[in-house]
Amino acid sequence: MAKRKPQVRDKAVAIKYRPEKDRAPTVVAKGEGHIAATIKAIAQARGIPIKRDDDLVELLAQVDVDREIPAELYAAVAEVLAWIYRANDEVKKQASG
């Protein structure tokens, strides 16, 4: 009898960061399965870039909603934010040119 691989549920974590107002990025939503799909659908509908990083999602999923991310995750989240800023700049360039 073949062993079944455990079904991996899709996960998502949404963060918010406003450099002019926030000391650090904050987890604003998290979930798996249907909730993860809803988080992603809302992001897509609002034009928010989505970056897949399974390891980082696992770590961020441990942070309570409405809490700042721990300092240990700053570097990893900074990489994601830099990617998002570049993606937003590309969209703006394409829209204006």
**Poorly predicted residue ranges:** none
Strand order of the largest sheet: 1-2-3
- Helix segment tally: 3
CATH topology: name from scop
Helix/strand-derived class? Answer: alpha+beta
Shape type: globular
Average pLDDT over all residues? 89
Biggest pleated sheet: 3 strands, antiparallel
The fraction of residues assigned to DSSP E strands is 15-25%
Question: How do the helices and strands follow one another from N- to C-terminus?
Answer: EEHHEH
CATH class: Alpha Beta
Q: Residue share in helices?
A: 40-55%
CATH homologous superfamily assignment = secretion proteins EscU
CATH architecture identity? 3-Layer(aba) Sandwich
The total tally of domains equals 1
Query: What gyration radius follows from the Cα positions, in whole Å?
Result: 15 Å
Task: Work out the number of β strands.
Answer: 3
Characteristic key phrases:
single chain; 97 residues; alpha+beta; name from scop; three-stranded antiparallel sheet; 3 strands; globular
Describe the structure.
This protein is an alpha+beta fold and 97 residues long. It has a single domain (11-96), classed as name from scop (3-Layer(aba) Sandwich), CATH 3.40.1690. The protein has three helices and three strands. It has a three-stranded antiparallel β-sheet. The protein is globular. It starts with 10 loop residues before the first strand and ends with a helix. The mean pLDDT is 89.
